[in-house]
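Q: what sequence does this backbone want?
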């Protein structure tokens, strides 16, 4: 523990003036400013040079001197740059030189001192007589010979020196309580410039007669000791020494305190305080009294001093561990106060006793006064336990009693011990402030002892009994709860009375006993060792030193072994162990070196255990940790026999020593021994590093230099003991260059203050490009230094393309030298790692610190899991994120499992319900729907296969159990035909265009012959829709060739889709193929494992610093290091192999049981299967025949067979009953004969075909394998077999029907014989080609023919893949990788800390989405391109394992193989089996087009309504209703005293009264009533015409000498003049740029031309600014008035200023114009424009900005639409007026955007100019023009957009008719409009010529035109016309009304009405009316309303649509 000594300082306030004996600081009058011992006053009066000097002398001063740059800068802050100022500069002269004023040399100051510092504009001329500060020149000086011109001036009164002229009565004056002390004085003349303002220049003779005498004694006698003294009285008694020039009196003096008290600044408490009094005034006769006021009301008198301790305005605060708990401020410190801890603070502290600290301070306390407090928070006593620790062998021997007491809660408590022995009893009371303690009862009691213990506090009490048994060796028990506490039983008496050897044995025995009882712990050993060590530390201990050393060493070993065996687990245990170990090492002299090392190691282990303890973060545990750490520190200090003290202060504690110039933080670290002596640590071999932060607010400027040539920057060195650190950052590395530093001048290669060459030696770029210059290198120079950078280039190279960033840092590292009591830099220097925020100091005064760093991956210790997770509350980021990932994974798995179940239902072959049960030849159709938007269909789709040998029946592709033809779906159908169709040549698809979305985009189709396994591909990629593509819903697609399949577009698209849907792990979770064995759950799990593994590898290598010496590999825009490359390789090796293994296992593992494998395990007899199927078929057929067998049915069956044969073999057999001859429809004999002839003919053809080879297939079917001869024979055999079975079916039907159904028995027998005969023909053929018996023929299927190669199929089905149980290996890897990765990621996150974890998490999320959304899709696309261009392999999906599901519910839903499917007969309906007729298609197309147009119209209306809404929001968002009121208020304020006609004098009067009073309001800087801030200065500008700008008539030239024309740009005066327009200034004479007599162009004024009521004026002119305040403005106007700035040549006057009203957030740009047309009268006109340059900060801003963005989106949408229309219509686009209107709206919108952008940029530019030139006029005119333009554009946008609503109203028939009527009569209407315009213009010209000179309504042609138009609408002033000329006026007005109103306008209306009548007769309903009907029908149908469509034209009947 560190002990601190607090010195309490007594602060005193004296009741009488106190001060130092030296002179006081300068105190100046109210209007003067003090600087360097003088008072300066800027005088606003105008005087000549001599008048100004006289004015200053009257006040005891002179004109100001500027001896150095500091004074110059000081005066610049006081002066106005726009005014000339006299300075105390005059011709050089001396009283000892006999020269006149005119012959004097260079200028000097008035006191004769030379000019050592100057800022001349140009060198003074020899004849210069005086000097002044020139206005508008940057405060430079100018010498002049004209000393009589009136200028402002600056007076200087030097403190301690006063000059009194002969006619002045000057006073010497000191402050309150001070007296005058005379230092010297003379009377006469030493300087010719003083006291001569009213005298003419003297002659040399007069100067020779001047002298002076010393009058110090006279002045001292008159003024010494006074506060005020009139020195003019002294001059009257003195003799004149300079008769010609008159003498003056000069007095030097200073002021001193009349009463000086000196007292020590600080004094310790109880020290004597000595107050010394020095009395300078006249000492009074009586004794004076002195009292001392302490500030708290106590007064101490000189004769009765008393000690005191107090203070005033004291602030108390209570803290714990630096945390503020409560505080209180009081006025008097000697009054007792109560400080309350609130309830929340008490809860934070928790129960128990707490050590708090009370601080007291006030504003004058140099050190805080503090004291410790102990605050105990009590609670109810719970869990009182006690154990007797004393153990003895002889109960009869009296002994001390030791008791261990513990509490669960309630401390502190008072304990009452009551002990009862054999013969006596004893009681004692003690306090316990902790929860556990040991108490010793020193009163000996004989025999067994019974102890009763009672504990209580103010809330509760509790009592327990502690007994001892008769055998004193047994443990004691607590009767209350029988608790045995682990206290060691070793009392003091045992330790005290035991001999040396016995003590060792006692300790060993106690340790062994604890081991035997299993109670050995660090706590028990600590208690034991503590008691023994305290005995050794007792001063009364007389044991030998060797014995004590040996015992201490033994106890250290015991403690070490115990801690190694039973580590400490709680801070309490660490406290006990540390306390015992500290007791051992308390006397370090008794420890050997090895024991010290062992003890230190044990302390280190204890400290480490504290850091790794997993305990709750409560206040009690923190206190225990703090206590344990304090004990450890104290113990280590005892071993090393030292203590350390560290201190950090924000302010310099030695501020009284000003030489150090310490502005930053100060810190202290010292080492002391136990006795308090200091341990010197100095002259270390290596410097230690000390980092001190720089003060807040310190600014460092960085310069970027272009090294194309020499580059220079300026550096200011503030102090001579400062170190300059130059931090340089080159644009490229290495960059060689030289640095030259020069002082007060630019350095060169030969002349410089310091030089170096870069880069220097160093391991980092910062070290190589850092130049440190200590004060020795800088040579103590301060001020401006010039740094020149010269690049080092090779021979022949003149320049380089590089830049260098230089940051200069001035710093100093100092320490407080206690011996010299000053700051010193000995042994300390500034380090290279100094930055603008941290100063690195390297000193050799303290301990060495060293660090090492090496680049390795981030490591984490899993054994610290509990410790890391204990900090979860402080850093929950990564743990919560990983936990959220696990929860999300579980939720997604549930969804994925449901999706897998849905996909399983989709993966099947749908057996078409319209398959003929007698058809035996099967085809598998695989139809892929495209991925385009809207590709799915709700229509009913039909298909027909087109083969080389036949055409299939139309089939309806549907499935009752699932939705087919969804977007991106693959649907499989089983289609059967009677015979093989041969090689497929095409496929026909159509649909009936039904449902809500009938359009269908078919992708590709694959057809497979299940008998021969041949495949045909059809690349459709086409729309079947009436409103898409070619508008067809019935198409035939040819079979695709191999070239078609290998086309790039097909391969690329197929590969891309497949890779995204199946190959891409993340995308395939959503869109995986339904038939894939890689399930959605498995894919989600793989993604989860991959994500966690990626996170783990990312966090392992996150934040690893790079090696600075490692080179960077540059690949264009990409740069990387070898370390980054290796990190990527390591991450890949860690992450990807295991994830690739998991995916491979899931993809390649076979299902546990598959259909093909079941067939392989159990293959039944094909004949047996066919027998079963035949039996089922026979039962169904028999049942059907019994129910429905008639002769008509038999005839229809025979006809059906014939039709089937006709289609499949392309013969001319009749296909229906109508195709038979007359009378044959019901003749079964005739029908059977036709069938018999076909069989006979077919047998002959087949016999001939068997002897020939089959021809080659056509080239287009190259994708199909050629069919062999055997296959051809097999196909013929299939046809014969099919025909044979059909005849068997007919035979059974005839047998069941019997002869009764025939007309005659003969016909029955004949029909039966015909059928049997055909069967025999077929049997002979079948027997010849197949070795089967007759029974097999009746139920053998064509599929059985495929059994011969069944083994090959089985092998193909079950070939490859991993065993089914590998799926468990995959899941095991998923779980393992996920858990391990998540666990270690959480550990890394907990280790990183919160900020670094958030940074890593953000980077990981960004990297993940970048990879998911960008990198991986690009990878898929590039791989697809590679495969399509290079590999060119067609991927064919395998559907062998897909089950086929029967759709007949009666037979159950069992799954059977493809080879043995049973086909059911479904009766067809006739609607879908034929394509819709062409007429129906056309009608559907028309309806669809109308529907689309209706929806497009609704969409157009809704979009346009949104567009109009956004446009109005934007329009009114740019306007503020307050702008009108602001403009009106300002206009009314400044035009209050304006008349219609004003002269020049009236203009000046208005300017001095109304203008200035409103421009400079009550509040400084605000106009009028103080709500609008004046932005910058106001500006006056006038435009003039040249003299003699017009010619006077010859007759009047005699009377009018000068003629000045009206304003025009040609006649405008643009010259420069002297004041008063006296003469023209030549080009070789320079004038002030802001002179009101010099013309300035509009570019110089940042102005633009402006329209007045008369003419357009240029933006230039003669300008003057009024200044910032009323006084400056009045002076300026007065100056202009007296110099006749306005005269007869003035044509317009502009008053320009800008104000800002913060209440409404508006800028108002004001231009007040007074213009004349050369008649001499001025007319007033104003232009005000309010604009918002700063957006509002409310919610409306976001709303308006959102509207602006949405409006731009609308414009982009309309641009796209119009561009599309323009591309479609080309030149016809421009013939539609509505298209042109849309185009104009788009152009205006983008123009508004451009102007808005320009206005924003101009506003920012003007505001930047104002902020940099606040004392100038800022022109916002261009911004105002841009804002006006924007408003005009928006207004026209709203106008045109509103007009476009007319186009939308065309849906209304009446509006449509009106539009058509206007179009019909447009030619006549335009003609009459022309007539109207001619009439208006004619009457306007006439009225302008007649009344323009006397009536204002007709003064211009435009005014006359407006008046004539107003006449037609009734707004007209008849009186002014009739009063002017009744006859002529009546004629003009009458004829105008007659012709215009009654004739022309009525004819115009007649033309319009005629056109409307004709349109009503010939009007034709447009298509849009039908669109409206469709639109209304759709809208009404949504609400279930019946809408009636009425047809106006005859023809179609009225229809009602529900």
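A:
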């Amino acid at each position: 523990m560190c002990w601190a000594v607090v010195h309490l300082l007594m602060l005193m306030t004296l009741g009488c003036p106190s001060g130092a004996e030296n002179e006081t600081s300068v105190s100046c009058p109210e209007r003067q400013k003090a600087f360097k011992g003088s008072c300066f006053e800027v005088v606003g009066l105008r005087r000549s040079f001599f008048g100004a000097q006289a004015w200053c002398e009257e006040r005891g001063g002179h004109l100001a001197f500027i001896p150095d740059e500091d004074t110059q800068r000081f005066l610049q802050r006081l002066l106005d740059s726009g005014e000339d100022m006299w300075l105390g500069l005059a011709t050089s002269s001396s009283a000892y030189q006999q020269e006149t004023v005119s012959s004097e040399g260079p200028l000097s100051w008035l006191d004769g001192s030379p000019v050592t510092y100057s800022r001349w504009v140009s060198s003074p001329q020899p004849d210069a007589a005086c000097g002044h500060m020139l206005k508008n020149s940057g405060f430079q000086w100018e010498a002049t010979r004209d000393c009589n011109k009136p200028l402002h001036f600056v007076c200087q009164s030097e403190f301690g020196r006063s000059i009194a002229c002969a006619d002045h009565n000057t006073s010497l004056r000191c402050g309150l309580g001070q007296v005058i002390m005379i230092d010297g004085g003379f009377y006469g003349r030493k300087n010719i410039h003083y006291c001569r303002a009213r005298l003419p220049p003297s002659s040399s003779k007069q100067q020779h007669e001047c002298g002076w005498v010393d009058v110090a004694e006279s002045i001292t006698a008159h003024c010494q000791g006074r506060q005020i003294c009139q020195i003019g009285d002294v001059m009257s008694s003195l003799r004149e020494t300079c008769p010609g020039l008159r003498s003056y009196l000069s007095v030097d003096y200073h002021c001193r305190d009349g009463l000086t008290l000196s007292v020590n600044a600080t004094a310790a408490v109880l020290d004597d305080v000595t107050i010394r009094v020095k009395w300078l005034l006249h000492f009074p006769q009586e004794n004076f009294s002195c009292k001392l006021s302490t500030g708290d009301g106590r007064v101490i008198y000189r004769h009765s001093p008393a000690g005191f301790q107090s203070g005033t305005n004291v602030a108390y605060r209570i803290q714990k561990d630096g945390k503020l708990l409560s505080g209180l401020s009081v006025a008097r410190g000697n009054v007792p106060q109560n400080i309350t801890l609130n309830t929340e603070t008490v809860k934070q502290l928790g129960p128990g006793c707490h050590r708090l600290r009370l601080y007291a301070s006030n504003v004058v306390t140099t050190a805080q006064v503090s004291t410790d407090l102990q605050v105990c928070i009590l609670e109810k006593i719970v869990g009182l336990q006690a154990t007797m620790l004393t153990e003895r062998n002889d109960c009869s021997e009296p002994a001390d009693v030791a008791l261990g007491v513990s509490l669960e809660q309630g401390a502190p408590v008072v304990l009452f011990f009551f002990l009862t022995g054999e013969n006596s009893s004893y009681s004692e009371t003690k306090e316990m402030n902790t929860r556990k303690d040991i108490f010793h009862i020193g009163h000996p009691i004989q025999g067994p002892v019974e102890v009763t213990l009672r504990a209580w506090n103010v809330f509760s009490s509790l009592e327990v009994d502690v007994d001892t048994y008769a055998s004193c060796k047994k443990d004691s028990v607590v009767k209350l709860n029988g608790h045995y506490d682990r206290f060691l039983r070793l009392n003091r008496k045992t330790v005290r009375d035991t001999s040396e050897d016995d003590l060792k044995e006692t300790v060993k025995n106690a340790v062994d006993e604890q081991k035997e009882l299993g109670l050995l712990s660090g706590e028990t050993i600590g208690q034991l060792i503590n008691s023994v060590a305290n005995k050794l530390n007792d001063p009364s201990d007389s044991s030998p030193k060797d014995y004590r050393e040996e015992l201490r060493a033994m106890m250290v070993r015991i403690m070490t072994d115990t801690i190694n065996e039973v580590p400490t687990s709680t801070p309490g245990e660490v406290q006990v162990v540390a306390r015992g170990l500290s007791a051992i090492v308390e006397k370090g002299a008794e420890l050997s070196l090895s024991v010290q090392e062992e003890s230190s190691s044990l302390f280190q282990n204890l400290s480490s255990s504290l850091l790794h303890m997993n305990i709750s973060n409560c206040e009690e545990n923190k206190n225990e940790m703090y206590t344990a750490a304090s004990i450890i520190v104290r113990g280590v200090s005892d071993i090393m026999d030292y203590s350390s003290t560290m201190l950090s202060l924000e302010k310099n504690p030695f501020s009284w020593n000003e030489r150090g110039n310490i502005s930053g933080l100060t810190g202290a670290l010292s080492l002391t021994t136990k006795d308090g002596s200091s341990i010197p640590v100095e002259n270390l071999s290596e410097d230690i590093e000390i980092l001190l932060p720089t003060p807040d607010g310190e600014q460092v400027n960085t310069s970027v230099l272009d090294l194309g040539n020499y580059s220079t920057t300026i550096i200011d060195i503030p102090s001579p003991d400062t170190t300059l650190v130059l931090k340089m950052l080159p644009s490229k590395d290495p960059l060689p260059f030289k640095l030259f530093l020069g002082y007060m001048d630019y350095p060169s290669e030969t002349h410089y203050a310091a030089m170096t060459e870069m880069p220097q030696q160093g391991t980092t770029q910062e070290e190589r490009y850092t130049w440190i210059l200590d004060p020795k290198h800088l040579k103590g120079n301060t001020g401006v230094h010039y740094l020149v950078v010269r690049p080092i280039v090779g021979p022949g190279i003149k320049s380089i393309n590089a830049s260098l960033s230089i940051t200069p840092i001035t710093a100093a590292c100092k320490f407080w030298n206690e011996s010299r009591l000053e700051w010193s830099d000995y042994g300390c220097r500034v380090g290279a790692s100094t930055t603008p925020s941290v100063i690195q100091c390297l000193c050799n005064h303290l301990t060495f610190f060293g660090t090492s760093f090496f680049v390795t991956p981030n490591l984490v210790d899993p054994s610290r899991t509990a410790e890391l997770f204990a900090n979860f509350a402080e850093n929950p980021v990564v743990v919560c994120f990983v936990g959220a990932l696990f929860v999300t994974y579980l939720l997604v798995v549930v969804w994925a499992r449901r999706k897998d179940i849905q996909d399983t239902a989709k993966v099947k072959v749908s057996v078409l319900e319209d398959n003929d049960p007698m058809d035996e030849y099967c085809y598998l159709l695989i139809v892929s729907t495209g991925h385009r938007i809207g590709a799915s269909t709700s229509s009913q789709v039909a298909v027909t296969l087109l083969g080389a040998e036949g055409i299939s029946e139309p089939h309806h592709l549907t499935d009752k159990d699932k939705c087919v033809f969804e977007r991106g779906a693959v649907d499989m159908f089983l289609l059967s035909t009677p015979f093989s169709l041969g090689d497929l040549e095409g496929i026909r698809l159509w649909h009936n265009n039904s449902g809500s979305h009938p359009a269908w985009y078919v992708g590709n189709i694959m057809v497979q012959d299940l008998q021969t396994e041949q495949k045909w591909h059809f690349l459709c990629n086409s729309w079947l829709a009436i409103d898409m593509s070619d508008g067809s819903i019935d198409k035939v697609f040819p079979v695709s060739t191999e070239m078609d399949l290998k086309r790039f577009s097909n391969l690329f698209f197929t590969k891309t889709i497949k890779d995204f849907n199946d190959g891409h792990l993340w995308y395939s979770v959503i869109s995986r193929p339904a038939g894939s064995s890689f399930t959605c759950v498995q894919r989600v799990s793989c993604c989860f494992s991959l994500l966690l593994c990626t996170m783990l590898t990312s966090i392992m290598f996150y934040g690893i610093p790079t090696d600075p010496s490692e080179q960077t590999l540059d690949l264009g825009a990409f740069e990387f290091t070898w370390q980054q490359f290796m990190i990527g390789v390591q991450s890949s090796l860690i992450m990807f192999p295991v994830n690739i293994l998991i995916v491979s296992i899931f993809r390649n593992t076979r299902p546990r049981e598959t259909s093909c494998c079941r067939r392989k395990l159990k293959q039944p007899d094909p004949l047996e299967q066919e027998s079963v199927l035949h039996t089922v078929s026979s039962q169904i057929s028999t049942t059907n025949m019994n129910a429905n067998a008639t002769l008509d049915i038999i005839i229809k069956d025979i006809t059906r067979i014939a039709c089937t044969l006709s289609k499949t073999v392309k013969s001319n057999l009749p296909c229906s009953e109508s195709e038979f001859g007359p009378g044959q429809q019901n003749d079964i004999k005739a029908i059977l004969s036709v069938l018999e002839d076909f069989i006979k003919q077919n047998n002959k053809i087949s016999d001939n075909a068997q002897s020939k080879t089959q021809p080659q297939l056509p080239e287009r079917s190259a994708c199909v394998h050629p069919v062999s001869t055997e296959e051809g024979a097999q196909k013929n055999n299939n046809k014969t077999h099919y025909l044979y079975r059909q005849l068997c079916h007919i035979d059974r039907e005839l047998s069941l029907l019997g002869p009764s159904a025939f007309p005659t028995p003969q016909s029955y027998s004949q029909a039966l014989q015909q059928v049997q005969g055909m069967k025999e023909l077929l049997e002979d053929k079948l027997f010849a080609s197949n070795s089967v018996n007759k029974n097999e023929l009746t139920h053998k299927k064509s599929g059985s023919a495929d059994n011969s190669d069944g083994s090959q199929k089985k092998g193909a089905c079950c070939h490859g893949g991993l065993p089914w149980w590998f799926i468990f290996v995959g899941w095991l890897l998923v779980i393992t990788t996920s858990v391990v990765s998540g666990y270690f990621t959480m550990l890394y996150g907990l280790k990183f800390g919160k900020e670094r974890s958030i940074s890593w998490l953000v980077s990981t999320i960004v990297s993940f989405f970048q990879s998911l959304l960008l990198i991986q899709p690009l990878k898929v696309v590039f791989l697809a391109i590679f495969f399509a261009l290079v590999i060119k392999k067609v991927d064919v999906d395998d559907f062998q394992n897909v089950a086929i599901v029967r759709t007949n519910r009666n037979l159950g839903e069992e799954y059977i193989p493809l080879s043995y499917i049973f086909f059911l007969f479904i009766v067809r309906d006739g609607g879908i089996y034929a394509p819709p007729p062409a007429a129906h298609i056309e009608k559907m197309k028309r309806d669809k087009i109308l529907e689309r147009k209706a929806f497009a119209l609704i969409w157009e209306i809704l979009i346009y309504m949104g567009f109009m809404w956004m446009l109005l929001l934007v329009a009114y968002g740019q306007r503020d209703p307050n702008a009108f009121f602001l403009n009106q208020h300002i206009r009314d304020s400044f035009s209050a005293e304006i008349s219609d006609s004003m002269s020049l004098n009236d203009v000046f009067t208005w300017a001095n009264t109304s203008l200035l009073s409103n421009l400079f309001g009550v509040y400084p800087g605000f106009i009028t009533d103080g709500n609008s801030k004046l932005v910058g200065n106001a500006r006056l500008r006038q435009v003039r015409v040249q003299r003699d700008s017009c010619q006077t008539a010859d007759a009047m030239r005699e009377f009018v000498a000068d003629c000045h024309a009206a304003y025009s740009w040609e006649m405008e005066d643009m010259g420069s003049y002297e004041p008063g327009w006296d003469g023209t200034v030549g080009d070789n004479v320079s004038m002030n740029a802001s002179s009101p007599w010099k013309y300035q162009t509009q570019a110089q004024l940042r102005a633009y031309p402006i329209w007045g009521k008369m003419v357009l004026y240029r933006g230039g002119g003669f300008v003057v600014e009024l200044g910032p305040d009323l006084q400056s403005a009045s002076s300026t106007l007065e100056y202009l008035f007296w110099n006749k700035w306005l005269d007869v040549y003035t044509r317009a006057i502009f008053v320009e200023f800008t104000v800002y009203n913060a209440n409404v957030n508006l800028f108002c740009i004001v231009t007040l114009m007074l213009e004349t047309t050369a008649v001499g009268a001025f007319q007033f006109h104003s232009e005000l424009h309010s604009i918002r340059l700063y957006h509002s900060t409310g919610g409306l801003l976001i709303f308006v900005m959102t509207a602006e963005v949405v409006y731009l989106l609308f414009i982009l949408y309309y641009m796209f639409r119009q561009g599309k229309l323009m591309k479609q219509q080309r030149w016809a686009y421009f013939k539609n007026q509505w298209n042109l209107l849309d185009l104009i709206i788009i152009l205006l919108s983008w123009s508004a955007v451009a102007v808005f952008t320009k206005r924003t940029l101009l506003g920012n530019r003007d505001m930047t100019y104002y902020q940099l030139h606040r004392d100038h006029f800022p022109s916002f005119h261009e911004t105002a023009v841009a804002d006006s333009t924007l408003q005009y554009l928006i207004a026209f946008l709203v106008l045109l957009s509103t007009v476009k609503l007319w186009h939308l109203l065309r849906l209304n028939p009446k509006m449509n008719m009106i539009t058509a009527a206007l179009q019909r009569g447009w030619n006549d209407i335009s003609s009459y409009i022309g007539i109207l315009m001619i009439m208006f213009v004619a009457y306007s010209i006439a009225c302008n010529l007649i009344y323009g000179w006397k009536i204002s309504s007709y003064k211009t042609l435009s005014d006359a035109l407006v008046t004539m138009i107003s006449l037609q609408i009734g707004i007209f002033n008849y009186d002014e016309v009739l009063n002017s000329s009744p006859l002529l006026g009546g004629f003009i007005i009458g004829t105008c009304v007659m012709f215009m109103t009654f004739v022309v306008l009525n004819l115009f209306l007649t033309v319009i009405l005629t056109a409307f009548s004709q349109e009503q007769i010939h009007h034709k309903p447009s298509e849009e009316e039908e669109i409206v009907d469709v639109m209304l029908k759709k809208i009404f149908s949504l609400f279930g309303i019946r809408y009636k469509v009425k047809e106006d034209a005859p023809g179609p009947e009225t229809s009602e649509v529900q």
